[in-house]
């Protein structure tokens, strides 16, 4: 008997598939930030002015290009930039701002910045390049106008933005004497290689310092004021806060001779004395029960501690001008007690205040 054998051939077909892993690295986008290679470039210029014309010393007076050529001629400084297409760059963008407090009054259409109670400034920075110009601060992303292959190297290129500029001076209010301007940072300059990018560190700063002097003066006549109340009976001091019975106030006229005071400037006389302990509106004397009241021509009481006596000025439009004022003085009882018999004295200093 034949046996039928069944045979099965199993064929296994395998394949090794090679998987190719394609790895690519994407280049990081340029930040556009620029910085000074040797640290922020420091520019400074002196500003010392003397104004003898009284027409200058008025609120709102504007002095254009007040620093003259003082803010100019500074060195260039090397800058490195993170450029979009290194190793060269075309346009760069300049921005400038001021750390000073902005003023509320524009100066010739420019933003003003406060130096002190009396003075403010506006600043313009020179931006070089294809379209050089003085640009009023603040400004953002001012192009230097250079396009195409300019040869500017991203790694290092010399800039001069901030090395020169102009300031316009503004009188916020008149003053007498000298205003000292300590070293003050006026402008910070920033550079970028991409429009709209704000670099975190200034490439350059500009500082100014100096003085502004207005040589004004006012002399009071008489310079030594002596008021003699005469003999007063102690029994005449009846009530606290009241002058003696039947006592007539002593009138004292004062004249002023002033120089370099322009029309519209307000002049006052201020008093510096010791107020009485019982009535601080009156001037203390050597008698504990008596003080001296000071009034203006209208009967308003003038405080002995920085009280103001207004002056009527005669402005002639010339360098010299004059003024006149008057005051009334009288003793008062401050305690309600009968004052001790004897001489009493009191002193105060009178100063000219120009506002």
UniProtKB/TrEMBL annotation:
<feature type="domain" description="Fimbrial-type adhesion">
    <location>
        <begin position="207"/>
        <end position="355"/>
    </location>
</feature>
<dbReference type="GO" id="GO:0043709">
    <property type="term" value="P:cell adhesion involved in single-species biofilm formation"/>
</dbReference>
<dbReference type="GO" id="GO:0009289">
    <property type="term" value="C:pilus"/>
</dbReference>
<dbReference type="InterPro" id="IPR050263">
    <property type="entry name" value="Bact_Fimbrial_Adh_Pro"/>
</dbReference>
<protein>
    <submittedName>
        <fullName>Type 1 fimbria pilin</fullName>
    </submittedName>
</protein>
<keyword id="KW-0281">Fimbrium</keyword>
<dbReference type="InterPro" id="IPR008966">
    <property type="entry name" value="Adhesion_dom_sf"/>
</dbReference>
<dbReference type="InterPro" id="IPR000259">
    <property type="entry name" value="Adhesion_dom_fimbrial"/>
</dbReference>
<dbReference type="Pfam" id="PF00419">
    <property type="entry name" value="Fimbrial"/>
</dbReference>
<feature type="signal peptide">
    <location>
        <begin position="1"/>
        <end position="29"/>
    </location>
</feature>
<dbReference type="InterPro" id="IPR036937">
    <property type="entry name" value="Adhesion_dom_fimbrial_sf"/>
</dbReference>
<keyword id="KW-0732">Signal</keyword>
